[in-house]
């Protein structure tokens, strides 16, 4: 579904160049769940930002369903982000003055074929909390609203950057259950980046990053259920 070749990202800090990615080749398949592991500074977030069209590579190409993304075409990148990709971050980025339903509706109003906000919130187990404001929700509930907002536009690709990083273990498991359900029931290709190796058991494939490169790719013979994950 998504193919990156020779992806390099170099940042200039004064007279110093810092290589965040060093010629990464990556493929994401339809309907799979991938976990990208690695310590801070290994390039995980940089790679996720390139895959989602939030950033541009210094060198390299990215193809979505056989069509090359044009990183110098802002309108093309905007359509890709709007129509094809959903994002979930460590911090929920909800609008405090809007209810859960209204936070999700922001996305459904611009999507081509969205889920109704009520259906998206029901999918993440918040059917009874739709009219609550973020301040009335726990951290785990707010993250589930963020997931509902991301999946409401029916993206082909869901990119998650440390989605359990701000949560305790029990709440984190609830969020992982939601991501697992979205992947299995909607068939959404899902990529999760984390420094937590235990989460790798949920995936079809685990990619381990080191120093701006993918050092290892491993296929899991069996995907663990979220209830089996311990950390």
Task: Describe this protein's structure.
- This protein has 231 residues and is α/β, with parallel strands linked by helices.
- The protein has one domain: 3-Layer(aba) Sandwich (Rossmann fold), CATH 3.40.50.300.
- 29% of the residues lie in helices and 29% in strands.
- The chain has 6 helices and 10 strands.
- A 6-stranded mixed beta sheet has the order 6-7-8-3-9-10, with helices on both faces.
- α3 packs across α4.
- The chain is globular and about 50 Å long.
Percent strand equals 25-35%
Q: What coarse outline follows from CA principal-axis ratios? A: globular
The CATH class turns out to be Alpha Beta
Uncertain parts: none
> What is the CATH topology?
Rossmann fold
- Overall pLDDT metric: 93
Q: Could you tell me the number of beta strands?
A: 10
What is the architecture at the second tier of CATH?
Answer: 3-Layer(aba) Sandwich
Major sheet: arrangement of strands: 6-7-8-3-9-10
The topology string of helices and strands comes to EEEHEEHEHHHEHEEE
The radius of gyration is 17 Å
CATH superfamily: P-loop containing nucleotide triphosphate hydrolases
Structural class: alpha/beta
Portion of residues within helices? 25-40%
Topology:
Layout: E1 2-13, E2 16-28, E3 33-37, H1 44-51, E4 59-64, E5 67-68, H2 74-84, E6 85-88, H3 100-108, H4 117-123, H5 139-151, E7 157-161, H6 169-186, E8 189-194, E9 205-210, E10 213-219
Parallel strand pairs: 3-8, 3-9, 6-7, 7-8
Antiparallel strand pairs: 1-2, 1-4, 4-5, 9-10
Helix pairs in contact: 3-4, 3-5, 4-5, 5-6
